[in-house]
Amino acid sequence: MKRSSKNGFRVLSKDEGEKLLDRQARKYLHMSGKEFVRRWKAKEFDDPDRPEIMRVAFLLPLAG
Amino acid sequence: MPGKNPYRAVRNFVRPLNRALSCLTKAVVIGSGHDPDNERHALILNNGDPVVLRVNPRLYLSVAMHYRLVKHAHRREWKVSTVAYIYGVQDENKEELLAYHWHPRTTPQHARPHLHLYEGTGANVLSKLHLPTRRISLEEFFRFLIVELKVTPLKDDWEKILGETQKAHEIFRTWS
């Protein structure tokens, strides 16, 4: 994980972002990160505004 | 606050945000960087996991934002524009209590800023609704946590810090 101390926050690489997305998708939604991305892009979530879904969806830019 | 390049613009955006966060937590923010070609970046507190707040009974805090880098048309400067946010509070069991949301692109059917009151608040009838709000700043949310929910701040001068960071944010924000 890269740390950009001057910027005051840690910048994740795409690979690190994908791993974080995968970890959090499994933790909060019991699915892999890839499965979450697939279902998200396919608009398969009935209520995407659910907190556990939004929690993972907000990580998407970290995964490129 | 603008910067003369994307890196500095993000730095100038994150610095006051970190000051505001320091009033409530020592948790670290992660992000996706400052590439202006990316139409959306993320800024996430504590890897997306709730962080514990100093209050009894225990509460947890979640903060996530999306932003993009915008180049001023006339000035040779870049600035960060927030394009989405989630500020949430969870109870001692990490069940959602309430959350301020704004994510117009993610859920176009709920494009405006809104508040969720989840069942943990006792608002069973309202828990599925999107209660309209204006755009809420992180500082406003933190004041609510400290003043209304009696969270003990980590800094004695939290009012001064939140006042300063909110003022800096308001000067350069693109919304009113």
Walk me through what this model shows:
The complex is a heterodimer of chains A (64) and B (176). In chain A, 50% of the residues lie in helices and 3% in strands. Chain A starts with 9 loop residues before the first strand and ends in a 7-residue tail after the last helix. Chain B is an alpha+beta fold and 176 residues long. In chain B, strands 1, 2, 3, 4, 5, 6, 7 and 8 form an 8-stranded antiparallel β-sheet that branches. The radius of gyration of chain B is 16 Å and the shape is globular. At the A-B interface, strand 1, helix 1 and helix 3 of A face helix 1, strand 1, strand 2, strand 4 and strand 5 of B. Strand 1 of chain A pairs parallel with strand 1 of chain B, so a sheet runs across the interface.
Structure, briefly:
The complex is a heterodimer of chains A (64) and B (176). By secondary structure, chain A is mostly helical.
Radius of gyration of chain A: 13 Å
The helix content of chain B, as a percent range, equals 10-25%
Number of domains of chain A: 1
| Strand residues, percent of chain A | under 5%
Distance between the termini of chain B: 15 Å
What portion of residues of chain A is helical? Answer: 40-55%
In total, the number of domains of chain B comes to 1
Give a quick account of the main beta sheet of chain A: strands, pairing sense, barrel closure. Answer: none
